[in-house]
């Protein structure tokens, strides 16, 4: 088996942009992409299968199984560039697999005459009240568009790991402009707040309106989980301090 893309039906997008978001730090890329797909009601039209995904299957609600995969969705924009979305269950588990999958996606983008690729992910950093969106691109024009939409330019030397980075790095060989947007996140839990920051930037860049009510609800749920975790950690620390004091208070005798 080799990495391949199976198109369920043909689409003819007009000046499309490709937005990619796979599982990664804080699941930021995947959350953002899936949210856009649902809100815009984008249609699924192709699957990516690869032997480089983890070796297990997913069981659905009916008890049926399927291999892990990537999915392409299409949304016809009545006012501007059409949008293609790529997301999936997992990233490739090997270095060779990462490059192979990125190459396959880029060839698919070239086939559909994609004008710009936008990759999404997480940037490991303790965020403030509203996480910043860090941007890097293949060219100054694309980067400036992101900065004008509210993103901040990435500092030099920051590595971007996985498909989000490779697509941008390899896009130059296909002569496709590419941009990477990373939301600040702790990274150890799904982070809808970081995803919302990216959504706000994308709204301005793409000139589309997205209802953010549902992601606001996800942020509230996430905040409650974080608060419970803080309370558990506080209780654990209090217990540990009491245990240490108790040990220190005991008198030891040497006979």
Compile the SSE list and pairings.
Blueprint (H helix, E strand, L loop, with lengths): L3 E4 L9 E4 L7 H13 L2 E7 L7 E3 L5 E3 L2 E6 L7 E6 L6 H17 L4 E9 L8 E5 L2 H9 L3 E2 L9 H9 L6 E8 L6 H15 L6 H37 L6
Helix pairs in contact: 1-5, 2-4, 5-6
Overview of the structural elements:
The structure is a single chain. 39% of the residues lie in helices and 22% in strands. Helix 1 (28-40) crosses helix 5. The chain folds into two domains: 4-211, Rossmann fold; 212-249. The protein is an alpha/beta fold. It is built from six helices and eleven strands.
CATH class of the largest domain: Alpha Beta
Instruction: Enumerate how many helices there are, as a single number.
Output: 6
What's the β-strand tally? 11
Structural class: alpha/beta
CATH superfamily of the largest domain: PAC-like subunit
From the spread of the alpha carbons, the general shape counts as: globular
Largest sheet, spatial ordering of strands: 1-3-6-7-2-8-11-9-10
Give the integer mean of the pLDDT values. Answer: 93
Q: Say what the CATH topology of the largest domain is.
A: Rossmann fold
Q: Specify Rg, calculated over alpha carbons.
A: 22 Å
Helix/strand order, N-terminal first: EEHEEEEEHEEHEHEHH
Strand content: 15-25%
Termini separation comes to: 72 Å
Label the CATH architecture of the largest domain.
3-Layer(aba) Sandwich
Largest sheet: 9 strands, mixed
Q: How many structural domains does the protein architecture include?
A: 2
Percent helix, as a range, is: 25-40%
Low-confidence segments, given as residue ranges, are none
């Amino acid at each position: 088996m080799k990495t391949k893309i199976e198109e369920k039906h043909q689409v003819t997008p007009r000046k499309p942009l490709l937005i990619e978001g796979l599982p990664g730090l804080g699941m930021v890329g995947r959350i953002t992409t899936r949210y856009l797909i649902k809100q815009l009601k984008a249609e699924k039209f192709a699957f990516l299968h690869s032997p480089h995904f983890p070796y297990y299957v997913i069981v659905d609600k009916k008890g049926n199984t399927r291999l892990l995969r990537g999915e392409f969705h299409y949304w016809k924009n009545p006012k501007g560039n059409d949008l293609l979305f790529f997301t999936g269950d997992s990233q490739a588990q090997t270095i060779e697999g990462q490059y192979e999958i990125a190459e396959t996606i880029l060839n698919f983008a070239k086939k559909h005459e994609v004008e710009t690729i936008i990759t999404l992910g997480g940037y490991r950093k303790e965020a403030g009240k509203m996480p910043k969106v860090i941007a890097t691109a293949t060219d100054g024009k694309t980067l400036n568009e992101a900065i004008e939409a509210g993103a901040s330019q990435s500092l030099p030397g920051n590595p971007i790991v996985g498909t989000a980075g490779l697509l941008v790095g390899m896009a130059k060989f296909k002569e496709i402009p590419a941009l990477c947007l990373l939301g600040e996140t702790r990274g150890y839990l799904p982070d809808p707040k970081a995803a919302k920051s990216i959504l706000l930037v994308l709204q301005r860049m793409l000139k589309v309106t997205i209802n953010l009510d549902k992601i606001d609800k996800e942020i509230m749920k996430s905040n409650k989980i974080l608060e419970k975790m803080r309370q558990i950690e506080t209780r654990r620390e209090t217990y540990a301090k009491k245990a240490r004091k108790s040990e220190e208070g005991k008198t030891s005798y040497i006979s």
